[in-house]
Amino acid sequence: MEIDSTLISLQSVKTASAAMRLTVLVLRRNACWPLSLASVHPYLFVMIIGRRHFIQSAIAGASLLAAPSTATDIVFAPGTGSNTAGAPSPLLLSRAKAALDMHNNRIRNHDLIALADFSKPSRDPRFYVVDLRNGSSTHYLVAHGKGSDPSHSGWVQNFSNVHGSEATSAGSYLVSDTYIGQYGESRRLIGLDPQNDQAEARAIVIHPAWYVNQSLIQDQGKIGRSQGCFAFAKNDINVILERVAPGCLLYADKV
Question: What is the pLDDT of residue 76?
Answer without folding.
Answer: 52
